[in-house]
């Protein structure tokens, strides 16, 4: 388990150095137009399990 966590942490830190250009944003917006994703991230039943 420890090696997996280490790999995930390494990937997360590496992601912090990624630069997204205006061209990248145009390409992202082309496949995910504004408003296409909406709503809650988790179902209400799952949210009730948080924080006791």
In short:
This protein is mainly α and 52 residues long. The protein has helices at residues 2-15, 22-31, 44-47.
Low-confidence stretches: none
- Given helix and strand content, the structural type is mainly alpha
Strand content: under 5%
For the record, give the distance between the C-alpha atoms at the N and C termini, rounded to a whole number: 27 Å
Order of helices and strands: HHH
According to DSSP, the number of beta strands is: 0
Largest β-sheet summary: none
Shape: flat
Query: Fraction of residues in helices?
Result: 40-55%
Number of domains: 1
Number of helices: 3
Work out the radius of gyration. 17 Å
Mean pLDDT: 85
Question: Would you kindly provide a written description of the structure presented here, covering whatever features stand out?
Answer:
The chain is an all-alpha fold and 52 residues long. It has one domain (2-47). 54% of the residues lie in helices and 0% in strands. The protein contains 3 helices and no strands. The protein has helices at residues 2-15, 22-31, 44-47.
Provide keyphrases for this structure.
single chain, 52 residues, mainly alpha, 3 helices, flat
């Amino acid at each position: 388990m420890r090696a997996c966590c280490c790999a995930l942490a390494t990937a997360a830190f590496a992601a912090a150095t990624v630069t997204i250009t205006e061209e990248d944003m145009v390409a992202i917006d082309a496949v995910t137009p504004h408003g296409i994703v909406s709503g809650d991230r988790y179902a209400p039943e799952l949210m009730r399990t948080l924080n006791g």
